[in-house]
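Researcher: We're teaching a course module on how sequence relates to structure. For the next exercise, students receive a sequence and then see the predicted structure as tokens, so they can try to spot secondary structure elements on their own. Here is the exercise chain.
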Amino acid sequence: MEENLLVKVPTITLIFWLTKLVTTGMGESLSDTLAKSIGPIPTLIFAVISFGATLYWQVTRKQYHVISYWLPVATLAILGTIMADAVHGGLHISHYMASILFFGLMLASFMGWFLVEHDISIHTITTRRAELFYWLTVSFSFMLGTALGDYIGNDLGLGLFLTGVFLSILLVIALTVRQVFVRHLLLETGSFWVAYILTRPIGASFADYFGLKWHNGALGSQGLSIIWLVMFIVLIGIMVRTDVVEADVQMD
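Model: And here is the predicted structure for the students to work with:
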């Protein structure tokens, strides 16, 4: 019989979305930096091992913890970037077809999740099996977001900055829908995943723009990686501190 766990995902608040956006930007910049420094294949190996190790730590815990949750998200941002790039560059699949491929894989993951658990709400991830389906879906969402962003920015010619702005508007709309229809399970769940997918190309578009295009690439992927990393550490620190305060209040 499947072991029941405490909730394994964070409360979906503004700081959740801010941290998610930062991890996507950080993943894009770090992926570029590593690929240029050690090559694409070693970067892929590093990303697979890092994600596997951090995910194992996360799924073997009994309940949600800030660091154990966000580390696999951060390493997956690197892995998702290089996987999507490998499908396009290595297999010579267009960004459009790659988007369709990853969307299909994400739908298949949702279907498997629903058939096994009879529920795909992030609020009911209290079993190891449901959590694995969640992370599988998250993995495909990162790859889908990367391919979709490349398709809009490159193939449709919108450019990096305008792609980030355009998708940011869609993100605000999705979050508004989720807030308005928070009691409607289908709309709340659907708008969450739409927003989750959008954060990936938004972060990546702005990361590439400010790292490579802004002032002729004055920051560079290395410089921007440091900025993203500092922002990530600050946000993690805020969430850890918030959890400690909340735990103290509950004890009192």
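Model: If you want an answer key for the exercise: The longest helix spans residues 220-251. The two ends are 35 Å apart (CA to CA).
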